[in-house]
Amino acid sequence: MTRICLIGAGPSGMSMLYHLAKMEEQGKCIPDVVCYEKQSNCGGLWNFDWRTGVDEHGEPIHGSMYRHLWTNLAKECFELPDYTFDHHFGKSIPSFTTREVTLDYLSGRWKTVNATKFVRLNTIVKNVVYNPDEDNFTVWARDQVEDKDLPSEQFSHIVVATGHFSVPNMPYFKGVETFPGRVLHSHDFRDAREFKGKELLVIGSSFSAEDISLQCVKFGAKSIVCSSRSGPMGFKWPEEIKEKPLLERIEGQTVFFKDGTFTEVDAIIYCTGYKHTFSFLPDNLRLQTENTLYPPNLYKGIVWIKTGNNKLMYIGMQNQYYTMTMFDVQSFWACRVILGEKTLPERDIMETDMSRWIQKLERVTSIPDGIDFQTEYVMDLCGDSGYQHNLDVKDIFQDLNRKRKESIITYKDNVFKSKFTGTVSCKHHKPFMSVFDDSYDAIVN
């Protein structure tokens, strides 16, 4: 009997539940589905939690969201084709939105088919084992509210949709233990106002480094030094932000860089990425990878081929340019496979397909290359699954990337046209660097 265990009710997991509920609504017979979600709400990373460290149940805080966060992508890059922003809000809104507005949009789609009916909130999966003799999985979970272990359950399929932005990667730098100020990872960053008047060191060169640096300047930080091993980010920064090569060592409040320069700072913020960590899975089922556009041992970036008889799947484990739409087509593809509407090829064909993508990935050397690569991947899934919409928005991505390079300060003031409605977003009433209210009303109304 087909029975699905879905782990995680964030954007990836809820896309899976949306498609299953939609299929049920269309009269299809869907299998029994149980979605385990350790938080008290659906939405995953898009839920704001003021806490850091552990929650009331002693579990690590999942979320990395902070106050005043705006999306790094224009909404036209992640708009869902069958549930547009215009449809949800009943009008045009700015291209760049905030956390609260984005979550409101995503949850609106789930509500159209009551996708949350499959979710068991406050329930954490502790262990998963594959049983080769029975060709199924045993899952052990814990009810965190009742503080008790639940009876084990059997499933034919496991779908892991926990995301990979909740376990910080914190490299060691010599002397960090001598630093007298605040040291934190971006995972624990909650409010830029904490650093008003401070001199900061930000380590890293990806989206979180650029966004947190700008947020801190916006809310009054005195100065910021950005340090990374990959070289300058190449933006025209405001005068408060300077770039340095990789941090070499720390002596008290003084930080030394590889070029021999040094400065004093009040706080250090690590924007050094996250680890793929699936503590509930044994080694033979666990994806072990760096953050990459095509993780190893996943056919179509989804099916785990090492063990589990192709019945263990991962959704949303790639490094991402495409986000919600990629999760959506991955989920649709997975649903069709599990329901028997699509048959997987022989193992040698799957391995050849994976090798082909890995070879393509080796030729990716820039952000534009990465956008092209992921566009091709998403469109391949669309064709292979019979997904009814064209998700190719690489022109918007490339235009957005150019605008970021032209002005990191003003690129969020730009507007873009929806691929699915043809609507050009309205402009926000103030420039991004002058907006200090990130509430729903401030953005939508």
Structure explained in plain terms:
With 445 residues, the protein is α/β, with parallel strands linked by helices. It folds into two domains: 3-167 and 274-398, FAD/NAD(P)-binding domain (3-Layer(bba) Sandwich); 176-270, FAD/NAD(P)-binding domain, CATH 3.50.50. Helix content is 25%, strand content 18%. The chain is built from nine helices and 19 strands. Strands 3-2-1-8-19 form a five-stranded parallel sheet, with helices on one face. Strands 9-16-10-11-12 form a five-stranded parallel sheet, covered by helices on one side. Strands 4, 5, 6 and 7 form a four-stranded antiparallel sheet that branches. Strand 13 and strand 14 (254-257) form a beta hairpin. Helix 1 crosses helix 5 (324-338) and helix 5 (324-338) runs parallel beside helix 7 (367-385). The longest helix is centred in the last third of the chain and has 19 residues, at 367-385. The chain starts with a strand and ends with a helix. The model has no long low-confidence stretch (mean pLDDT 96).
Summarize the helices and strands and which ones pair or pack:
Elements (H helix, E strand, L loop, with lengths): L2 E5 L3 H15 L6 E5 L48 H5 L9 H14 L6 E2 L2 E9 L4 E8 L4 E2 L3 E3 L1 E4 L21 E4 L13 E5 L3 H12 L4 E5 L13 E4 L2 E5 L2 E4 L4 E3 L2 E4 L27 E2 L3 E2 L7 E3 L9 H15 L8 H15 L5 H19 L8 H13 L33 H5 L1
Parallel strand pairs: 1-2, 1-8, 2-3, 8-19, 9-16, 10-11, 10-16, 11-12
Antiparallel strand pairs: 4-5, 5-6, 5-7, 13-14, 14-15, 17-18
Helix pairs in contact: 1-5, 5-7, 7-8
